[in-house]
């Protein structure tokens, strides 16, 4: 399997003036094409920082990151924007929907600028929201909002889907529905997916689990057998 | 339409109240700029087109009586392209149906029919036939005011002979766009008219065969008016030259010029204030929006929107606000400009419409509106664009409050926590607090600056009419009569008292400065028309010396005790060194006063008078008018009470309109600033205030924090507002001062108090409107909202 992401000695230091925080401390990691990886660790362990750097939202302090053959750690802001626009789909813990836009329009926000997007309606159908397309965020449950966010992320047909605590704000039942959508996208579209979570229950649906602690990778496990999201609960 | 555009439009709709508050302030700037600048441009263009087409002269001169052959010499002056000689006389008319005497200026038309310069523009009928002895054309506004049509007849007292004249046509002339009778303060087309009469008839009536007493010149390109004026003065001097002058001293033109000056002053002083306030309001609102939409900005960046797209998105929001403001401003400005044009139509007689607002004025006012809104939004939009996406996704750090000496001061004062919260928030955003206060101060300033006009008018009227000119009527003679004839005046019906006064044309010089004036001379103890010195006392000019109005003294750069050169024109043409013996408070005209005996000695003649100031029994006025219509040598009668009434009514109406406009404007500024300020506070503090409510604070206590901050800023805004207002009033007064009049700067405590009350009330109401939202705050929901 070819690697979608590779990192070499990736380090990120936050300098708040009074003290320095090493959020990432020499991370070497590869994520593979078509794989669903879960990045597990307590809050502050550096997993969100890694996801931000992989997604081109943040710069590393040192070390390198490649997206396939593209060294994204060497890109300037303009090229990072291009990179995010063309290759990456994001899903956030708090959905980050634009309150003044309907579900369909939130998805269109992405299809308006992407290179070869699927129609917004199709993306919403993929996440089972074909009947809720014209509802505004305030009119939807948390789970529905997160599914809109996933539809928005997959509408551009991204090669990778980066999910930061996608079930963090949801109860177990709705969280499972969201995980099912993610698993389905990974299975059917083959989109490489990285899911960040501090919820250990989720790890069993992944191909691989990367354990984080204090800015370093503690260990990497491969799941011999994956379970369906419906079997997960917390 | 892209999803981002939809977000833009929905954001704009959601923000409508705040956007409207800003748009209205911006609209004030747009409307005032459009009105003042647009009217300035169209007035200026209309005037210059009219002057060009109808060959308005460049130089004007009067003399007592000059021979016709002198015109050859005048035409040979270098730079003169064309010259017209005329006879100009005053006459009293007896117009059917009008009790009052009507004064007219008669101008001769050359034997060839139409003059070369100052072409009268025919509005109805025809010009008089060159050979006709009793045909006249009149200025159209006079005909309209007196209901005269071609073919009508009326009587005129021409040089002591009563004649019946036939009206052949009505005309307009570039010389009489603003027509004001001798001694009058305002145009009055009912009692003053201009008559054009064939030269032969005028010459015969006024005994001016082979002579002229008025000449107008048109100069070639590049000619120096000063040199031509000097040469013309020299040529006319032996014939009682009364001083040549350029367009600047031509009465009609100088009134238009002073109006243009006022428009220019207003266009430069007022609109920038509104544009600046709008820019600040946009900045304040945009900075809050961007703080609120932090995570949305992060999201847009995460999904691949570029910095430029995000920057433009937020700038467009400001542009939408500016567009709304511009459209409202254009509507209001077009309406205002038309109202102003109607007002001008009362005073100015142009042959064409002057409210064709120039497209450039629309474009300029709109572009400036968009530019100022974009400037206001620029910083925030750039900040949004520069916000690193990873940072944008994280919640903002709470604002840093530090203990400072002020906190220790507040602790020492044992202030309640809500008061501490207010003060700390004011100090936490000092620039925003200062700019909010400045915005409110400008609202105060606008009101203070306008409140001075009514007070100034009162001062002007009371000085001019109650203290200086207390006569009931002024009887004018043409030419001057011996002072001894006052006894005859006393015998006229209803006349209870009569005092003589002479006007004599003169040039005053001090160093390189000079001014053409009419010296007013009267006997000591004159009580009807008095001279009011700067200390407020009525004084008599001393036997030697000249008293000058303050404005004239400033113009000549002289003080009491200085010596000035006085050249008496009109025959004697001798220059005397005369001391300035005192200064006079005078708002209308450039007064120079002398003792009648002294002037007569300088002129080496028995005392003569140009006017008689009368105290008249009001009941006898119609009879007096009737007698005067048949009296030779009379130039007309000015009814001072009537003049005062029409002056006050006209100015008062204009001031009322202006005060209403500025009151609206000040309220709009206050609402724009206070409402937006309170909304932003509420938005920033919703959680804090909801927390206080949960902790058991009452609605009143919580709203005190919200309303308190706005009101403290409003109170702080008062003193700088007063100062700024006084400054603006001074600039407006200085901008509207001309040779013709001066607007006194009168700032009354009541003006300041009124300004403060209006602004404080509007600020309180605006923050109370926002307070209503506080009452509706859903406590649980607010606490759940993620910052």
Label the overall shape of chain A: globular
Major sheet of chain A: 6 strands, mixed
Low-confidence stretches of chain B: none
- CATH homologous superfamily heading of chain A: P-loop containing nucleotide triphosphate hydrolases
Please state the oligomeric state of the protein chains shown: heterodimer
What would you note in describing this structure?
The complex is a heterodimer of chains A (234) and B (787). By secondary structure, chain A is α/β, with parallel strands linked by helices. Chain A has a single domain (3-89, 155-231), classed as P-loop containing nucleotide triphosphate hydrolases (Rossmann fold, 3-Layer(aba) Sandwich), CATH 3.40.50.300. Chain A has helices spanning 47-54, 77-87, 103-111, 120-126, 142-154, 172-189; strands at residues 3-15, 20-32, 36-40, 62-67, 70-71, 88-91, 160-164, 192-197, 208-213, 216-222. Chain A has a 6-stranded mixed β-sheet, sandwiched between helices. Chain A has a 4-stranded antiparallel β-sheet with strand order 2-1-4-5, with helices on one face. The longest helix of chain A is centred in the C-terminal third of the chain and has 18 residues, at 172-189. The model of chain A has no long low-confidence stretch (mean pLDDT 89). Chain B contains 23 helices and 22 strands. In chain B, helix 1 packs across helix 9 (307-347), helix 7 (251-292) runs parallel beside helix 19 (640-694) and helix 13 crosses helix 20. In chain B, a hairpin with a 5-residue loop joins strand 15 and strand 16 (538-539). In chain B, the strands form 4 sheets. Chain B has a 6-stranded mixed barrel. A 6-stranded mixed barrel of chain B has the order 13-14-20-17-19-18. With 787 residues, chain B is of the alpha+beta class. Chain B folds into 4 domains: 1-56 and 249-396, no CATH class; 88-207, no CATH class; 429-471 and 641-787, no CATH class; 495-616, Cathepsin D, subunit A, domain 1, CATH 2.40.70. Chains A and B meet through helix 2 and helix 3 of A and helix 1, helix 8 and helix 11 of B.
């Amino acid at each position: 399997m070819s690697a979608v992401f590779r990192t070499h000695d990736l380090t990120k230091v936050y300098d708040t003036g009074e003290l320095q925080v090493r959020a990432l401390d020499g991370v070497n990691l590869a994520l593979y094409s078509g794989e669903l990886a879960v990045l597990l660790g307590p809050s502050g362990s550096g997993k969100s920082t890694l996801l931000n750097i992989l997604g081109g939202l943040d710069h590393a302090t040192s070390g390198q990151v490649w997206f396939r053959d593209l060294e994204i750690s060497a890109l300037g802001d303009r090229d990072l924007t291009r990179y995010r626009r063309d290759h990456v789909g994001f899903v956030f813990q708090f959905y980050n929907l634009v309150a003044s836009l309907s579900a369909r329009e939130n998805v269109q926000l992405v299809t308006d600028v992407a290179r070869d997007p699927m129609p917004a309606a199709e993306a919403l159908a993929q996440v089972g929201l074909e009947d809720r397309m014209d509802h505004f965020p305030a009119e939807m449950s948390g789970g529905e909002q997160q599914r809109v966010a996933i539809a928005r992320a997959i509408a551009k047909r991204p090669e990778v889907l980066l999910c930061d605590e996608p079930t963090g704000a949801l109860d177990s039942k709705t969280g499972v529905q969201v995980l099912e959508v993610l698993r389905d996208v990974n299975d059917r579209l083959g989109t490489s997916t990285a899911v960040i979570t501090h919820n250990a229950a989720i790890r069993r649906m992944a191909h691989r689990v990367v354990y984080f602690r204090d800015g370093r990778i503690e260990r990497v496990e491969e799941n011999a057998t994956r379970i369906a999201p419906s079997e997960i609960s917390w | 339409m892209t999803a981002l555009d939809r977000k833009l439009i929905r954001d704009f709709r959601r923000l409508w109240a705040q956007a409207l508050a800003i748009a209205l302030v911006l609209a004030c700037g747009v409307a005032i700029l459009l009105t003042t600048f647009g009217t300035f441009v169209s007035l200026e263009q209309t005037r210059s087109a009219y002057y060009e087409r109808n060959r308005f002269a460049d130089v004007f001169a009067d003399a007592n009586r000059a021979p016709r052959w002198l015109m050859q010499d005048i035409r040979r002056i270098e730079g003169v392209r064309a010259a017209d000689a005329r006879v100009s006389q005053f006459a009293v008319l007896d117009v059917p149906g009008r009790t009052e005497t009507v004064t007219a200026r008669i101008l001769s038309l050359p034997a060839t029919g139409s003059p070369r310069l100052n072409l009268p523009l025919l509005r109805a009928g025809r010009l008089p036939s060159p050979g006709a002895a009793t045909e006249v054309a009149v200025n159209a506004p006079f005909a309209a005011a007196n209901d005269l049509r071609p073919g009508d007849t009326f009587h005129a007292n021409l040089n002591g002979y009563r004649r019946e004249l036939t009206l052949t046509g009505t005309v307009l002339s570039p010389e009489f766009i603003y027509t004001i009778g001798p001694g009058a303060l305002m145009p009055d087309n009912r009692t003053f008219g201009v008559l054009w009469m064939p030269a032969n008839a005028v010459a015969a009536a006024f005994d001016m065969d082979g002579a002229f007493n008025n000449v107008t010149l048109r100069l070639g390109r590049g000619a120096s008016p000063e040199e031509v004026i000097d040469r013309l003065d020299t040529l006319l001097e032996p014939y009682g030259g009364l001083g040549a002058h350029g367009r600047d001293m031509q009465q009609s033109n100088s009134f238009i010029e002073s109006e243009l000056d006022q428009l220019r002053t207003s266009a430069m002083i007022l609109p920038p204030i509104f544009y600046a306030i709008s820019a600040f309001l946009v900045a304040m609102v945009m900075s809050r929006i961007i703080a609120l939409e932090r995570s949305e900005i992060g999201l847009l960046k995460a999904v691949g929107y570029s910095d430029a797209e995000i920057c433009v998105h937020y700038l467009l929001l400001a542009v939408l606000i500016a567009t709304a403001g511009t459209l409202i401003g254009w509507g209001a400005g077009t309406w205002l400009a038309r109202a102003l044009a109607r007002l001008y139509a009362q005073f100015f007689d142009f042959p064409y419409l002057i409210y064709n607002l120039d497209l450039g004025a629309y474009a300029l006012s709109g572009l400036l509106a968009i530019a100022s809104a974009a400037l206001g939004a620029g910083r925030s939009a750039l900040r949004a664009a520069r916000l690193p996406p990873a940072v944008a996704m994280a919640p903002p750090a709470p604002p840093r409050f530090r203990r400072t000496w002020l906190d220790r001061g507040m602790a020492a004062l044992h202030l309640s926590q809500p008061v501490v919260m207010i003060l700390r928030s004011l100090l936490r955003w000092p620039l925003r607090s200062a700019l909010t206060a400045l915005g409110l101060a400008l609202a105060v300033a606008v009101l203070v600056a306008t409140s001075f006009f009514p007070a100034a008018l009162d001062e002007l009227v009371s000085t001019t009419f109650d203290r200086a000119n207390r006569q009931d009527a002024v009887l004018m003679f043409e030419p001057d009569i011996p002072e001894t004839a006052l006894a005859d005046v006393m015998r006229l019906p209803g006349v209870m008292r009569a005092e003589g006064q002479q006007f004599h044309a003169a040039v005053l010089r001090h160093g390189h400065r000079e001014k053409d004036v009419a010296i007013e001379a009267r006997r000591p103890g004159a009580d009807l028309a008095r001279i009011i010195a700067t200390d407020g006392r009525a004084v008599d000019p001393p036997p030697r010396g000249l008293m000058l109005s303050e404005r004239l003294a400033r113009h000549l750069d002289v003080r009491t005790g200085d010596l000035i050169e006085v050249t008496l024109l009109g025959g004697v043409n001798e220059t005397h060194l005369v001391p300035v013996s005192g200064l006079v408070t005078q708002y209308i005209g450039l007064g120079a006063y002398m003792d009648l005996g002294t002037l007569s000695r300088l002129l080496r003649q028995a005392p003569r008078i140009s006017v008689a100031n009368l105290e008249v029994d009001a009941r006898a006025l119609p009879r007096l008018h009737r007698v005067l219509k048949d009296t030779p040598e009379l130039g007309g009668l000015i009814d001072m009470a009537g003049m005062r009434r029409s002056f006050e009514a006209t100015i008062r109406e204009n001031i009322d309109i202006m005060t209403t406009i500025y009151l609206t404007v000040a309220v709009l500024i206050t609402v724009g600033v206070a409402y937006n300020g309170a909304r932003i506070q509420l938005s920033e503090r919703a959680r804090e205030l909801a927390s206080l409510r949960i902790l058991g604070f009452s609605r009143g206590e919580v709203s005190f924090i919200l309303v308190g901050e706005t009101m403290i800023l409003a109170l702080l805004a008062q003193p700088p507002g007063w100062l700024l207002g006084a400054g603006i009033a001074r600039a407006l007064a200085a901008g509207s001062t001309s040779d013709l009049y001066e607007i006194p700067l009168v700032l009354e405590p009541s003006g300041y108090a009124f300004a403060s009350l209006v602004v404080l009330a509007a600020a309180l109401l605006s923050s109370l409107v926002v307070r209503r939202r506080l009452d509706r705050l859903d406590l649980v929901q607010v606490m759940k909202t993620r910052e």
